[in-house]
Design a protein that fits this description.
By secondary structure, this protein is mainly β. The chain contains two helices and 28 strands. The strands form seven sheets. A six-stranded antiparallel β-sheet has the order 18-17-16-15-21-22, with no helix packed on it. Strands 12-13-14-20-19 form a five-stranded antiparallel β-sheet, with no helix packed on it. A four-stranded antiparallel β-sheet has the order 4-5-6-9, with no helix packed on it. Keywords: Repeat.
Length: 484
């Protein structure tokens, strides 16, 4: 054959002689180039499905020569994605919706929640009846192998590394390597018949449609964050098309709100004339809420004047809540609103050409689940002029993640215990002690279990150089489940 020979893929509905029925009538198909162990994805012509054809061949149209063919058996069960259950919920708020295996290497995890508090946690796969230390790290949705950040209802895809496929593993878990702790897992069935991993199963996720947040151990990418109330309230933001997306992160009680918005006057924090959003957890309806407010005076709303939801004074709630989560005493609520709404009186525009003064506050909710008066001590309301350029990129000045905290309004923690002069010490696992135990004593979130030494919760142990001490450890013998 000469250099002008045209070789194409061809498919037929009855037999090899029916090639004319599959000829292109518009654009000519590309001539096949040389291939050597190449993976190729072929898309059938418009309207054709696998069940409509009987064979696929490599065909030379000039010399009507068949270079090779494959026949499609009748009743072929075409590989397709497989839907699994959600993550088993064991620790750190891990949960999700039903997980899907899209192809031999790709997992789709919708509505993923995880508090991000595990110090050395990863997506983890392996073999055996339970997740265990003999597993393999799986890169996160952006291909990183750094410890997992927190997730607040995000949809993500992850892919198995190297030559590993779903046929090689028994489970997918979120696992803390340092503490050998399983936060939750899902089992992989043995009767899988999913598509090969050739890049054909990519779908839209939070990662592909919005800003990607990287691990908490490094500075976020394309994320803005500013501290509003030291140790109590941070704000994150980004502009997406005609919307401003805002996330409030507050160390508040369940009966409190957090408020953020544009000051009533540029250059200093002024509540009168301010346009704010009040975000909180509605305990009666068991859902997170974000309400559009306008402040005409420093008083409780009477239906006309005061600190009022827009809807109570003839306006509209222009705020759309996106997600909410509460863990370790920290509430995170994300919402969006138009940069410029149609309510000129109650709503102020978010400018993108300059900095603008903002205000923030936290305080109690009243019986109507509306914002009540906050204290004016400076710890619950902005007293200095805080300005934000909402068009900025990577304006990340937050230093406190807010989840290492002491419960200031809770009961007094138990006093710190000590062990001194004892040569034999028995270590057992037990509960963390609730509002008087591990977290109030240390100021760090608990793992749900804690060590007791000689029946004392996390005591300080004094030992003397040159002496011999015996530790009897009764920590359980179930290696795959540290909590047991």
């Amino acid at each position: 054959m000469d250099d002008n020979t045209t070789v194409t893929w061809d498919a037929g509905a009855s037999g090899l002689s029916d090639t004319a029925s599959m000829k292109y009538v518009a654009n000519e198909p590309p001539v096949l180039q040389q291939h050597n162990n190449t993976d190729i994805i072929l898309k059938l012509p418009m309207g054709k499905r696998i069940r409509d054809i009987l064979w696929l061949s490599v065909w030379c149209r000039r010399f009507t020569v068949d270079f090779g063919e494959i026949f499609i058996p009748p009743g072929l069960d075409v590989p397709k994605p497989r839907v699994l259950p959600e993550f088993k919920r064991l620790a750190h708020g891990l949960r999700s919706s039903n997980i899907s295996i899209l192809d031999a290497k790709t997992f789709y995890i919708p509505n993923l929640h995880y508090d991000g508090a595990g110090p050395d946690a990863y997506f983890w796969v392996g073999n055996g009846s339970e997740p265990n230390i003999m597993g393999t790290k799986v890169p996160n949705e952006i291909g990183s192998l750094e410890p997992l950040r927190g997730y607040q209802g995000e949809d993500i895809e992850i892919q198995l590394p190297g030559n590993l496929t779903v046929y090689d593993i028994d489970w997918l878990a979120v696992w803390c390597v340092e503490y050998r702790h399983n936060f939750g897992h899902v089992y992989i069935p043995k009767d899988l018949d999913v598509p090969p991993a050739l890049g054909q199963t990519k779908i839209a996720t939070t990662t592909t449609t919005s800003t990607v947040y990287t691990q908490a151990t490094s500075k976020p990418v394309n994320v803005n964050c500013k501290e509003l109330l030291r140790g109590k309230l941070n704000v994150m933001w980004e502009v997406m098309d005609d919307y401003i997306v805002i996330e409030l992160i507050g160390r508040i009680q369940e009966d409190q709100y957090m408020a953020f918005g544009i000051s009533g006057s540029h250059g200093h924090p002024q509540m009168v004339g301010a346009d704010v959003v009040v975000a909180f957890y509605d305990r009666r309806q068991r859902r997170f809420r974000a309400e559009d407010y306008y402040m005409s005076s420093l008083s409780q709303c009477d239906g006309k004047l005061g600190v009022c939801p827009d809807e109570r004074i003839g306006g509209k709630n222009d705020v759309e809540i996106l997600s909410g989560d509460r863990s370790h005493g920290v509430t995170r609520i994300k919402y969006r609103r138009l940069l410029q709404t149609n309510e000129a009186v109650n709503d102020r525009a978010y400018p993108l050409d300059r900095q603008i003064s903002v205000i923030a506050a936290i305080g109690p909710l009243n019986s109507r689940d509306e914002a009540n008066a906050h204290s004016h001590t400076g710890t619950e309301v902005t007293v200095d002029d805080v300005q934000i350029d909402f068009a900025s990129k990577n304006d990340h000045t937050c230093t406190d993640a807010l989840d290492n905290y002491r419960d200031e309004n809770g009961p007094e923690p138990w006093p710190l215990r000590t062990i001194l002069g004892e040569k034999t010490i028995t270590a057992r696992i037990g509960p963390t002690g609730g509002k008087r135990g591990y977290t109030p004593i240390t100021g760090h979130p608990s793992w749900g279990i804690a060590w007791y030494m000689n029946d004392l919760l996390i005591p300080e142990i004094y030992v003397e150089r040159g002496q011999t001490y015996t530790f009897i450890v009764e920590g359980g013998d179930e290696m795959t489940q540290p909590a047991k």
